[in-house]
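User: Predict the structure for this protein chain, please.
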Amino acid sequence: MSQKEKNPLAFFHEEPISDRDYTMAEAVAEAKRCLNCRVPQCRNGCPIENEIPQFIHEVAQGNFGAAAEYIYHRSDFPALCGRICPRETQCEGSCVLGKKGKHIEIGKLERFVADLVLDNHILDDVPSKKCNGTVAIVGSGPAGMAAAQDLARMDYDVTIFESSTQPGGTLTYGIPTFRLHKEYVLREVERMEQLGVTIRYETKVGRDISLDKLAEDFDAVFIAVGTMEGWKLGVENDHLSGVIDAAQFLYQVEQVQLGEEQLSRLPVKPGDTVLVVGAGNVAIDAARTALRLKAKVKIVYRRGEKNMKCLPSEYMEAKEEGIQFQFYSAPRAVVGTDHVEGLRIEKQKILDDGTMVPADKIIAAIGNRPEMDIIQAFGAEATEDGYIESRNIPYGMTSRRGIFAAGDVVHKPKTVVLAMREGKRTAAGIDEYIRAKHMMEEVNKDKEVHMSELIQQIEKANAAFVEEHKAGGLTEVSKYPSRSVAILTCMDTRLLDFLEPAMGLKRGEAKIIKVAGNTAGRSFNSVVGSLMVAVYELHVTDIIVVGHEDCGMLHTTAEGLCKKMFEAGIDPAIIDDVEPQLMAWADPICDCEESVRVTVRNLQRNPYLPGGIHYHGAVIHPDTGAVRFVITDAEKK
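Assistant: Here is the predicted structure, written as structure tokens:
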């Protein structure tokens, strides 16, 4: 069977892309137009702050290897981003040359360099040693691929679980081939596999394997499933046959091109009158795809031309291809009995209610959201719309320990470059988490090796204290020889008397510093002031940060406090005024051990405290008095 017989839509790939690639001479000539601005606005317009002037300068000099080093410093997929990034509203839209003339073609230069080094195998990629731990990644879209590459370079053993037969997520199934040829995606996947990343296809987490199983088998799990479920039109009869989800339509078209689906099974037929509701890039892609299937296509949008969310260049290409646009037309009902016959709209501009636009098919392209059944199967905290909630420390971790999430499934559908950025940030968070986890495992195996003499003495004293406390009596503990100690704690005042004997200290022996609320916050100058007195005047050499389990303060958030103030009838204007202060005070970290670690880290970095101080972290149980020490960055060193 020939390729065309297998792929009846092969002409999608054969269609010339209007934004053609540069030759080497053209790339050098274009790079020489760059003004190399002192304050590069192009970089300010880039979501990942790519080192744009530097790489363009190297291209102008013919130093393509050096240009690639600058590009790959922040971007994992410049060959893709240079083709599909909304650069006309980002880097190129910020170029000063574009204010009065023609901006620098940054995207075309970026992909020229990337194509050159990838095709000639110039990049020096060392396969993962797979010695630092195991990570499961759910989904092989931009966020998942970016995280996989970074983690493999950190010597992790990475396995991607992909529900489809092909990698790439929205890169493969959401962007039509006439806009992005899929060999560019496969080239990136091949490079990723050469790093040692394994991909398991046709494996849907939540259906074929549970998230609990992955959490059991891997050190960390990263959810990067994207948002492939479309929003319904939300009007009467939007369930009728002939109402099509745009993302699902594009997915099916790609399946036809892969030879996995028959052309006759596509919902859009030659001669159909197709209405596309929406005006984002997905709507434009769906409309242009339907046009190539020989349908008559019109885009219906509730607002005006200037309000369209798609790129201006995409809008212009759609118009040039013959797609019609009807603005200020809000859908009110799908017309038909068993099948779509048209769409009833309300003309927003002249308020003429009840106009019916005939149609055989209606493609809903008003946005995507996560698949709710899959999100529920994950068991992580999520919004009502299914977007998973994550934290910043460690970056990307969800409400489930060791389970991370990023990309569209957290931050809502945006751009490929933003998903890639979040994947890279989460990879760093996963690395931080696994290193701490492994360090803690080592500590638990041989605790005495990692604990200082002071901590060992406290643990022994604490064990005796807990036993006496159980028996209902307390005796004065004997003072052991130790250095002066400062204790930084957020414990309730009524528990402070309990703290010293629990740690084997005589009353008044330690310098105890009480902190209201945010021990892990960035702004705690009063705390540092007290510690300065302890260090410089009282000659303290050990600082112990103590949190306590079940402390309600640790679960306090600014949002929660504001909500309770509102419920109590406080003026909303007053709440708005105090919220920034609450955000600086209320501890955003609900994990007590992590709160202690962040506090120690902040103290280590504080310029007002001298070197030579020993920092420790501990958690005390408010009922039994049992103390356990937690591994901190100070002890890792």
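The radius of gyration is 30 Å.
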